[in-house]
């Protein structure tokens, strides 16, 4: 019923995923993604574009097209596990702008994309991880069909900070220190006392030779986590660098 998805279009699908013994591993009544963005397992990336709206398909995915040789912790998939997916293509739409979504759906979509980024990061594909983290932020920051309640707004902010910290880690792995610093500072604008962002910001500023600013960030991080050996070591390195040379 209708044309198949074209490159760049967004799809909504209902997905059930199970192991060969029938044990369920995934269940999503409305999974939203753009094929080709690396946002879902490859079986869905390749399979869904062959479908028409309203069609139900079954994909038996070997482990390279599912969660790979290591498997996954979330969802719980054993190593080298093939998966059977039942997929219903619900909708195909052009995707120039984020679609207005209820706050609960934005949270679920943001979390799903961040977990996908973590999947890529753990396997060393840092460019794919960064793409997924950015897609997560797009979902979290996108238009809403209704204002979030206080608890939902708090959770949205928490997820934004997690995503920005993950973006910083991926940028560092890709050798982009300035972009990593910008992600840390964006996280701190949301949560000024986020210890992870403070520590990484301090480390990055120290690498740039901005020792005074680095020390401020690291001292605040130490106030939040006085037992951290990493922060103590960073401050010790800064102190040694700033100590005047001996006359003897």
TrEMBL record:
The UniProt record lists the keyword Repeat: yes
Gene Ontology MF annotations: peptidyl-prolyl cis-trans isomerase activity; protein folding chaperone
Keywords annotated in UniProt: Coiled coil, Isomerase, Repeat, Rotamase, TPR repeat
Catalytic activity: [protein]-peptidylproline (omega=180) = [protein]-peptidylproline (omega=0)
InterPro entries in the cross-refs: FKBP4/5/8-like (IPR050754), PPIase_dom_sf (IPR046357), PPIase_FKBP_dom (IPR001179), TPR-like_helical_dom_sf (IPR011990), TPR_rpt (IPR019734)
Segments forming domain PPIase FKBP-type: 8-93
Classification via SUPFAM superfamilies: FKBP-like, TPR-like
EC number, as in UniProt: 5.2.1.8
TPR repeat windows: 195-228
Pfam family, one: FKBP_C
First-tier enzyme category under EC: isomerase
Segments forming a coiled coil: 153-187
A Gene Ontology biological process term: negative regulation of apoptotic process
Signal peptide boundaries: none
Highest taxon, organism lineage: Eukaryota
Name of this chain's protein: peptidylprolyl isomerase
Protein species of origin: Origma solitaria
